[in-house]
User: Fold this.
Amino acid sequence: MARTVVIGGGASGIAAARTLHDAGHDVVLVEASDRLGGRARSLPLASLLSRRAAIPDQLSAFAENHVDAGCGWLHSAQRNPWTSIAEATGFSVDRSEANWRTQWRDLGFTSEDQAAASQAYQSWNARAQDALDGPDRPLSDFIDADDKWRPKIDAISGYANGANLTQVSLHDWAAYEDASTDDNWTVKEGYGTLVTSHAAGLTVRLSMPVTRIDHSGRRLRVDTPAGTIEADHVVVCVPTTVLATSQIVFDPPFPDKHAAAADLPLGLADKVFLHVDRPEWPTNAHLIGKPYSACTASHRLSPFGWPIVESFFGGDCAEMLEDRDAAQFAIDELVGLLGSDWRNRFTPLTATRWRQEPYIGGSYSHARISKAAQRGVLAAPVDGRIHFAGEACHPYDFSTAHGAYETGVAAARAIIGEPAPIA
Assistant:
């Protein structure tokens, strides 16, 4: 029987291996790190609390729950395949409003300024959309550098793209925007928990980085520190950082793949999780820390009613905070809005540093200016034997776990002989 090796145990790799396994194919999933999920990673609150000498009574009741260090939102949820997988396997999908556009009690952000900022964003968006028939340009071209709301829009780009306006391709951005819908839901048990649960029953080899793929002979030879695996097909489901830096060597080489990966770098988005004593806001409230700054967090207050705050940083701000005390930055922002008596009510639980994560090195991809077409180059199979999948390979749902899923399924179906190209 033909054997397939799926390289990379994130959302795309799990989807590819699951599809092949369920079709009766001989498939093994190899993952470089010691866990599955990749950028979909849920952390049990119990493990975060175990680092503390004492667990607050109000938090101990929630200790069996999980928080998402990586992807946390079912974007475009009604057409997102992870939504139906969650519902079919007993996960709890929360359809509550994300509240990203609201500022709890208008703290530090008057209703008049909120309206003005919204209008500025809509005007910027319209100018960008009007330019789509022309050459590709950076998103920063559509708002003046000295515009009062440029920092706010830059912060939004950091959250959405993992990069600031000057770094993001207009054509690439528009492909995502035109396809996305405004239904953003969550999984109470954790998006990462959902993704990894989809690997149940698969043959998996952890802590097994692939160093070389020799495709010069009749069979493919996949080299790992544990030995060489022979295969008839390979599905490469690794972040663009891995390919761009040649952590996997192709023999003979694929210079076009390395170039495409370099043109689709991973931006950065990081999170801080805080315990809060006696929260006074409703479930899933929201605050922007400094609405007039490009370096600020989007603070999600008491998700699912838990006494925690999830603070989200993106772009240049996240890059800066990877080498600083991001938790203290988040607390300072919240205290600046809520008052000094709140300082002792926040306790850091953990902070992510995705740029420093081995075998990942970032969050989600964006295209460099004039390089949006490189997604198709990266995704193209080679010789009918080597397939590529992952969020960066999707033409419009890139940067998402559902985009990763769809590319993994498409690669698997091509191997099975039931191609289902992404529209």
